[in-house]
Amino acid sequence: MIIIDAGHGGVDPGANGHGVTEKDWTLEVSLHQYHFLRKLGIQCKVTRDRDVLLTPERRAALVKQSGAKVCISNHYNAGGGSGAEVIQSIYSKSKLAKQAADALMAAGMPVRRVFSRKGTAGDYYYMHRLTGSVETIIVEYGFLDSAIDMKKLSIRSFRLQLAEEAALAAVKYSRGVENSLYVVQSGAYYAKDKAEKLCEELKQKGYEAFVRRMN
């Protein structure tokens, strides 16, 4: 089980830059990860599926009580800088965070750093401090106020690709997979109806199958 957290929401907009509000993009990529993993037959949940405010306590409780092994908390940065960041708990062995960072880098997003931050009561970030035994990583996919990052992030298909790579890294980690996770493609069509027909045929034969649009 994996739980996906769409950072911010409601009256908490998060970061802003180049006309983009963080809460909107975190919800976009989180819902994409959810449907992406469900189509692969992987159990997952989300902390929010619409634009609502969750208090830190409520958000952390949803993660802690989810029964998940891993949580991906999705975010975008601002404040001067460039590149993705992955933040782990001070008690983590860093394997999950490193796998996620490596996946983002392989997909074409430079990674600024993988780090943890200590606070006065343990972890600085409540998503690490209050989520119990669920191993949580905070993924900052880039800086909204960086022209360099936004040149890539403004392309929706690239944002979704990064989200998929982070999700697959979490799956590999949760299942103890060291090497690559392979997805088999059975066919590719320009006509949607043909793709859906093949998908249905595969399902009838007992295979997990889904249609994915390639932009």
Automatic annotation (TrEMBL):
The keyword Protein transport does not apply. InterPro entries: MurNAc-LAA_cat, N-acetylmuramoyl_amidase_3, SPOR-like_dom, SPOR-like_sf. Its EC number is 3.5.1.28. It holds the Pfam family SPOR. SUPFAM superfamilies: Sporulation related repeat, Zn-dependent exopeptidases. One of its GO terms (molecular function) is N-acetylmuramoyl-L-alanine amidase activity. It comes from the Bacteria. Keywords: Hydrolase. Residues 176-215 form the SPOR domain. This is N-acetylmuramoyl-L-alanine amidase. It comes from Guptibacillus hwajinpoensis.
